[in-house]
Amino acid sequence: MPSATPRAPFEWTDAAARGRAAAGLVRTLRPRTAEPDLLDLASNDYLGLTRRPEITGAAAAAARRWGAGATGSRLVTGSTVLHAELERELAEFCGFEAALVFSSGYAANIAALTALTDRGSLIVSDADNHASIVDGCRLSRAQTAVVPHADPEAVDKALDAHDGRALAVTDSVFSVDGDAAPLTELAAVCRRYGAALVVDDAHGLGVLGDGGRGALRAAGLAGDGDVVATVTLSKSLGSQGGAVLGPARVIDHLVNTARTFIFDTGLAPASVGAALASLRLLRSDPQLADRVRTVARTLHGRLTAAGLSAVQPQAAVVSVLAPSPDQALRWAADCRDAGLVVGCFRPPSVPDGISRLRLTARADLTERQIEAAVGTILRTAPTGR
Ligand code: PMP
Fold first, then answer.
1. What pLDDT does 3 receive?
2. How crowded is the C-beta side of 231, counted as CA atoms within 13 Å?
3. Which of 111, 149, 193, 234 stands 20 to 30 A from 276 (CA)?
């Protein structure tokens, strides 16, 4: 029997909001204006391409030619010649046999993990992997073993304990700390057990490897028959979307079985055009990848020389440790007040409980901007650190 006065269905969200407020974990949207008025060390536009006229021009041209939307799922009307061109060039650039473009990197990770496993499979996943990998593991219904961060021995043990199809999955460069996965060791362990290796190279494409060809290329693993990479087109390529790269048989399997491919509208032509233009620009200017890594090392060097603790950057992400969650939050807010946007990570977003500022280097930062950013971070740093 329904009660006399039915409860409003979303009333409970007020209590959840109060809980977040009490824990200091309220998230707020800050719509930015079109003209940047703050120095940005928080975005993922690692190569500074998203607003380059060649890239926005390619996006506009693609929209005019192919339409504002893809018009349907990739298997119906949503695959254009432009999508096929991007897939061909992306695979070739990164050194893989084939590629498949998705509407996001998130969808690409879910596709790889769900389509390449079944209920009897084992996924061995690094404890610090990105949320889209965590969700891919959950949706796969495979057994998942979460192993300690960057620990090939733990991966070995997990694989040893399983009989049947298995894969290990890792970020190439971890989102929060910017440290790198031990790819060579992981590949060797996987090979001992006939397991596949899936690497999310979201932070490696455009930054690592020869001319920005990615972490797999840098490790000499690109194109191997037992290796699959996932990437996003939304970071160094300054666009939107994602892709899976791997052996042609794997890509064919994804076309036929990956639900985030089959039941999702294709990536918008403007995003495809922009990503393709960025890829071509990267090919013609291989120094871009070197430049962003140099900027990251410079930021790290100057901040640590001044006494801050920061993780040695392996790519574009520079993680600066903060003494406490509250101080991290205030530090980031003080930076913003001084005209600098930085990321701020606090528990529970950081599994080790250590709060940090997260800076992202960009290839187009000038020496003056780097100096200004370092000056602001040092001036606003909590005392007694
Ligand atoms: N993997 C990693 C490691 C990421 O950092 C991100 C983006 N935050 C994604 C996947 C998801 O990519 P996208 O934003 O294109 O969905």
1. 63
2. 33
3. 111
CA distance linking residue 313 with residue 41, whole number of Å = 14
State both tokens at 5: 């006065």
Rounded distance between C-alpha atoms, residue 320 and residue 342, angstroms: 10
Q: What is the pLDDT of residue 384?
A: 54
Query: Does the pLDDT at position 295 exceed 70?
Result: yes
From 50, 129, 132, give the residue whose CB has the most ligand 1 atoms within 8 Å, as the site to mutate: 132
The domain segmentation of the chain, as residue ranges, is 29-51+286-380, 53-284
Residue of 105, 3, 89, 136 lying closest to 273 (CA atoms)? 89
- Retrieve residue 90's tokens: 């992306």
- In this structure, what token pair is assigned to residue 319? 């993680």
What is the average pLDDT across 50-55? 97
Residue entry with tokens 């990105």: 130
Whether residue 385 is predicted with pLDDT greater than 60 in this model: the reply is no
What would the pLDDT profile of 74-127 be if each residue is shown by its tens digit?
Answer: 999 999 999 999 999 999 999 999 999 999 999 999 999 999 999 999 999 999
Q: Ligand 1: does its nearest atom lie under 6 Å from the Cβ of 376?
A: no
Q: Which atom of ligand 1 is nearest to the CA of 109?
A: 10
Tell me, which fold does domain 53-284 have in CATH? Aspartate Aminotransferase; domain 2 (3.40.640)
Euclidean distance between CA atoms 230 and 227, whole angstroms: 10
Domain 29-51+286-380 carries which CATH code? 3.90.1150.10
Question: What is the atom index within ligand 1 of the atom nearest the CA of 132?
Answer: 10
Tens digits of residue pLDDT in 208-234: 999 999 999 999 999 999 999 999 999
Token pair recorded at residue 194: 């006939």
